[in-house]
Amino acid sequence: MRKVMVFGVFDRLHDGHRHFLRQARSEGDWLIAVVTQDHIVHELKGYVPEEHAGDRMEVLHREGLADRVVIGDPELGTWHVVRQHRPHIIVLGYDQEKLQEEIERAAGNWNWFFEVLIMQPHKPETHHSRIHRAKDSRGKTPA
């Protein structure tokens, strides 16, 4: 069984997220979605998600977009979730270059091999969380 792992905030789940998760699922037999904890989102991106991590996890679970939905590590750079699940493939979004660098650097200390794949964007001009947040801040309803 080929385990695939993805990482994301998945705040206000939109079609870009769904497309990414479907692409990732097609790369293996079992998809594990790692949802970033609220305080880590704030630390990395400078904002707090609109939905709490538990709610974001519930949406992914309810929509059946992953076989398993787990919470991310409470501390950056520890990689407990990766070491616990030992994926065969880690799939990243087109905008997760920094995460790719950090995972590949950390992997030198791990005793198993995995692939890192970068997925193509799905309409990034309309389906990116940054765009949805900007629309909301102007009082418009996101697409």
Overall domain count? 1
Summarize the main sheet.
5 strands, parallel
Structural class: alpha/beta
| Main β-sheet, spatial strand arrangement | 3-2-1-4-5
General shape: globular
CATH fold field value: Rossmann fold
What value does the Rg take, in angstroms? Answer: 15 Å
- What's the name of the CATH homologous superfamily? HUPs
For the record, give the distance between the C-alpha atoms at the N and C termini, rounded to a whole number. Answer: 37 Å
Tally of contiguous helical segments: 6
The helix content, as a percent range, equals 25-40%
Poorly predicted ranges: 131-135
Beta fraction of the residues?
A: 15-25%
Q: Strand-and-helix sequence, N→C?
A: EHEHHEHEHEH
Q: How does this model look, in words?
A:
The chain has one domain (3-137): Rossmann fold (3-Layer(aba) Sandwich). The chain has a 5-stranded parallel β-sheet, with helices on both faces. By secondary structure, the chain is an alpha/beta fold. The chain contains 6 helices and 5 strands. Strand 1, helix 1 (15-25) and strand 2 (30-35) form a beta-alpha-beta unit. The longest helix has 11 residues, at 15-25. The protein is globular and about 35 Å long.
